[in-house]
Input
Amino acid sequence: MSERDFRRISDLVYEHCGINLHDGKKELVRARLAKRLRLGNFKTFPEYIKHVLADKTGNEFSILIDSLSTNLTSFFREGQHFEFMREEFFPLLLERKRKKRNFRIRCWSAGCSSGEEPYSMAVALLEAVAGQGRWDIKVLATDISTKILETAKKGIYNEERVGPVPKLQKNKYLVLHRENKRKVFEVSKSLREVVIFKYLNLMKDWLIKGPLDFIFCRNVMIYFDKSTQERLVNRFWGLLDSGGLLFTGHSESLTGIEHKFNYIQPTIYMKP
Ligand SMILES: C[S@@+](CC[C@H](N)C(=O)[O-])C[C@H]1O[C@@H](n2cnc3c(N)ncnc32)[C@H](O)[C@@H]1O
Output
């Protein structure tokens, strides 16, 4: 892959989804795309790029993004966020809503990958409202990768992946099946009723109706440059209700970004 090919690809990816492939990523891009070239019988990178651009359905572009993005995730990842919600945020949120007789809770997992994050959010919410009357809860879960969204919608995980789910909640929200001798866990109907998966490119229009009570955008912005992060954070602001929270990933602070959020603790921000 020549320098020129790399620039073409990184410009295309940046324009389409904000992912910033700096020079240090060249080897990674080459290695990941080499496989795609082999599978598609493309002899050179320019030939492959031409094909990506000519495919007006956008499928080939999705495959390109899929092979370059990192989908690493886990159930209850960054446990301090879930602890904060359980101990501090949910009691106040529920109290505030009860007073207004508003029993609707809306939140968003932006960059949900294979689903562990939004399902964890749904578990946390269902646990918080358990035994407290009828609540209308929805977790919107979106990602740019159509392939990873298929996995997320299936909601089937192996034993290792459900490891971080506490035993009581595992029994309540995950259904155990045996495939040959392997144990697999399928998310329960109660979780499926709460989580809605959709394709969404964070760089494009969203068509999401606010106000939202909280947004998880964790380990996604790390791939974007500062100006893209700033635009995104301010769009999140616009969607959140007053008192709503934005959670970012452990290495994504809002330092150096102009915004109006109040800092609560590292990676947790509130719209006043
Ligand atoms: C590392 S995963 C993070 C998953 C989860 N939020 C977590 O913290 O465990 C990043 C996800 O962001 C998605 N992503 C990257 N760029 C995106 C964009 N422009 N729009 C929507 N999703 C994007 C990727 O497809 C990937 O699934």
User: Anything to note?
Assistant: The radius of gyration is 20 Å. The chain is about 45% helix and 20% strand. The chain has a mean pLDDT of 94. The pocket of S-adenosylmethionine is lined by residues 17-19, 69-73, 77, 111, 113, 117, 143-145, 148, 200-203, 218-220, 223, 249 (CB under 6 Å).
